[in-house]
Amino acid sequence: MYAGPVQDLIEELGRLPGVGPKSAQRIAFHLLKLPKQDALRLARAVTEVKERVTLCTRCFNVAEGDECGVCVDSRRESGVLCVVEEPRDIVAVEKTHEYRGRYHVLQGAISPIEGIGPDQLKVRELLARLEPEEISEVILCTNPNIEGEATAMYLARLLRPLGLKVTRIASGLPVGGDLEYADELTLGRALEGRREVEA
Amino acid sequence: MGLYRERGVVLRTIKLGEADRIVTLVTEGRGKVRAVAKGVRRTKSRFGARLEPLSHAALLCYEGRSLDTITQAEAIDHFRPVREDLERLGRATCLLEVVDAVVQEGEADPRLYQMLLGALRTLAANDAPLLVPAFFWRLLAQQGFRPVLEHCVACGSGGALVAFDVGEGGVLCPSCRHGTRITADALGLLRRILGGDLVAVLAEGPLPAGPELEYLGTRALEHHLERRLRAVGVLDRA
How far is CA A80 from CA A104, A129, A150, A153, in A? Predict the structure, then answer.
């Protein structure tokens, strides 16, 4: 429809998640109008990310170089590991400023319906880290959905016999939410995990 | 009107866009329903756990062209004991997968729906190691593929029966044998499952014939569905 390179660009953009053919066309024309150096900056960012960023050899977070920023940081508390599904989850936990330990990214969750079992996740790598890093507590920080819960249960069963403290993040009501709209499962767990008020 | 009420069990969910999910349910009156739940993945979503796989919920939906949209959901049962036990969860996922493969959009199958609910309730009350093979075989029978177990399916002889063939749909005697070998124990158990002895079978602990029947049942279902089942054994590989 358009001249070769423009059509190629539209097709490539159209492969991005959430970008349909119409949006792809809009972005492509936006890029065409852009000053050259602005457009090239985007191109450079893409090349750079693909060339320099890999997975951390220790925790499988995204990393520049061999190990990621968290693993290299010596101020991090050693002995505690927070197990998450995706690198994005690390960012979410980091934003809380409540956790000072290191992470382990499973790169997914057990999902029997999709046929994803523990052997497709970074579970063996997790086990291999426990002894050399003298881990005493593992926090299971997978999503509170069916896949995440299955993964947490599986890991708990695997880790508990090793004599570590295995904890699971709590389930409860979101701050700013309405009790009336809370689902029974969440509210039930929130009640179960209630805490004594220290006044 | 486009609005309708329905009760259903959530079979699976697929992420859609930023915070939505497509929820596949088996319902009482409409068979399989695929509907969009807007914003379910946000922590503050009104739906919360009500639209997770395995939840039994009462819904208010409106019809769309290809996908319906869920506007309200109220939980009937979460089957919490099933969710919190890896073994039972593994079994339940097997059931959800086969029901998803069998049930059709717009074709109500109330017996199948009741069968799934019954199986999940059984599992919530007590772990039943033989639930998956029992469910698979009962499902085959209910869908019209009840296997011939009393005599050889090829020659009709009533003597020793030693093999099972999924294509023939029954057991075979030593002279006609092909397909998979079946032990006398497994055959006996299968007769009990398809006869009237299901409750007693489900109350039993693990039997050596259980895995054999699960394997045969999986093969038979895969043969008739013409697709592979993925959930069976995923958690056992661990």
Answer: 10, 11, 22, 19
